[in-house]
Amino acid sequence: MSGSTGTPESLAKSPFSPIRRVITGHTLEGKSTILRDETTPALRWFPDKPTTIYDFYRTNEHPAKLDSELTQGEWVDEIAKDHSLVSTNGSTFRSIDYPPGSEAPFHRTPTIDYAIVTKGSVTALLEDGSTSVLKEGDVFVQRGTLHGWKNETNEWARIFFVMLASEPIKINGEVLSTGVPPIKPIFLDKDGNPLA
Question: What is the pTM of this model?
């Protein structure tokens, strides 16, 4: 991959703008208000890969409780406390910027994932060898399958994901394994370099 020598400082940076998130809530009088309006910090899951992740929101239960600013005195940002791949009982909302030639390893999560490609093109890879090239505006519904992603182009791609917890998939009474690699977030500065 051009621009990458394998060290975090030399990895290519996503050409896309950082993403702003606006979070709403309620005042003690019950009026709607904006609780947060900020640029979401970028992060990486693997130090040797330039894939850039933006985590926007997480709930850890269903139905979600949306009143922490009322019951705890301030809004609780669950995604700031837990950047794991999925919430096993709630929802996760994030985007991922895939560099040219990159590939996400096969994995299965106990979730239904709604994905929309907003920039570029990526190929969804499935266990039986089937593939689907997704372009800007295409959506992909992933239903607990073992899958991977590959950017087979020479341009960056951006996908937004909403992942909702689901029952695990069972075949003949056996739960299919998740195959999720361990993830440790590495936060990036505004120039795309890892923070110390």
Answer: 0.86
